[in-house]
Predict the 3D structure of the following.
Amino acid sequence: MSLSLAPGVKPRRWMPTLAAGLSIGEYARSLERRLALLTAVLLAAIWALSGQGYFWPAWVWLGLGDLVLLDFSASWAWRQPRGAVRRVACVWALVGAAAVILIFTWLLTWLLAGVHTFWPAWALLGLATSGSAYSLIALHDRVLVAHGRRALRARIDMLTRTRRQAVDAQAAELRRIERDLHDGAQARLVALTLQLGRAELRVRDQPEIRGLILDAQREAHHAIAELRDLARGIVPPLLADRGLVAAVESLAARYGLGTAIEVDTRRWLAPAIESAAYFVIAEALTNTAKHARAQRSWILLRDEHRTLAVIVGDDGRGGADPSGSGLAGLRARVEALDGSLLVDSTDGSGTILEARLPCG
Amino acid sequence: MRVVIAEDLALLREGLVALLRENEIEVVAQVEDGPGLLRAIAGHKPDLAIVDVRLPPTFSDEGLLAAIEARRRQPALGVLVLSQYVETAYASELIGKDTAGIGYLLKERVGDVRAFLDALHTVAAGGTVLDRQVVAELLAPRDGATGALSGLTAREREVLALMAEGRSNTAIAESLIVTPGAVEKHITSIFAKLELPACHDDHRRVLAVLAYLRVSK
């Protein structure tokens, strides 16, 4: 805020002039200092004219100086950063001002009244002690908080990093298990059915043995089918072989919803991210096919800074329950990767699933 | 018949070799990876290659790519691809524009020895054999463009599925326990409903059905 003088008032030289750019505080402070100076000079002149003797204006000077000093120290303290630092600055501004006043008063009593004892000593000691104690408490707290924050941030960084490592390790481990199933148990079972088939050819004339062999073969087939489903649940073969885009195209073709697919990413994706994106899309398409009665559906894969955005939508009847087991499971999977999953499914206006997966 | 086998798992490879040899099929080479398959085909000029989809070094779709490349270099070669899972996408790539001499089966089908040997002979003779899981996926009901399929009766759908697997009329009749005449009647009806040109050659018929299914996807 700035002050302007009333029209017609001619500014005096000793007044803070022309007002422009001065806040009320600045104006008042400037006025106060100049008035104090003027008063001090006037009193000294009166003392000189009135026959001198005991130099009484010194006491008035002390009073005026106190005001200016207090004002100066308070405004200095107020300029400090908020919080503990400003509080400590205010305390020391008061302590400092009080100490200066005490010492000045003592000087005057010594010079004018001949008092020799340094009587403010105990008061100064008390002021310094209490100021120090206050600073110690206030700033110690602050140091502790800062230290705590740093430790907390380091801990969060470490947890984020190790969680990601754990998730990646888990994804790699799952793929290894899938490969082991393929090369191990599944292959042995296939070899077993082959041997059983050869045996069956040799006992065509013994129906009882042949029946047993065929039973055994059927069991082996069930086991193979179960292992295949298990492996597919871990990582769909096309995803492992050809990556996310091929797997999603095949998925969309299988549902036959005429899904439009738009891919705007060339990024290499970690297995955990790829799997999560795949299962988000698979769940969304399953829901669309089962419940939505949609005319159109679409999939969008897009790079957004260091994030992969996976958006799957339809124009069906909406009303999906975000807390249902399928979506809740997906959310857990996405959040374990520090990602987010949004479900927008108002009644009658379609469903949109948006997953954002940080990758890099 | 002269056959090359590309399979990296020794247990299975040896089982296959034993099975083929005791059924008077000559195994001219056994290889473990894609480049090996291409070399064996160039060297031995076999009638048929039996190829596992997952082969070293990538253990992804190496075998499939090698099989497609082998067919490109030697179009008369029959290729039977075996896999522990079936992907319609892989079947489409393998079939390409021409289904002559192509097979795509789940690995465990080797257990049904006679059907497996039939499949080998069909593919080597330029026929087509598709796993029933692939066919089931091709025929799966969809919301989209396959309206004509829903006009088929349940029995006609069964016959269509078996046709798409590459079975002959006789085999279809046996499998459904009906007379060959009844199968013939169903086929005529299916072709009429799908507006496909009638044909009696097994191979051309499969071609027409697959072309229809792929277009209508």
Observations:
- The longest strand of chain B covers residues 26-31.
- The CA atoms of residues 88 and 137 of chain B lie 7 Å apart.
- Chain B has a mean pLDDT of 86.
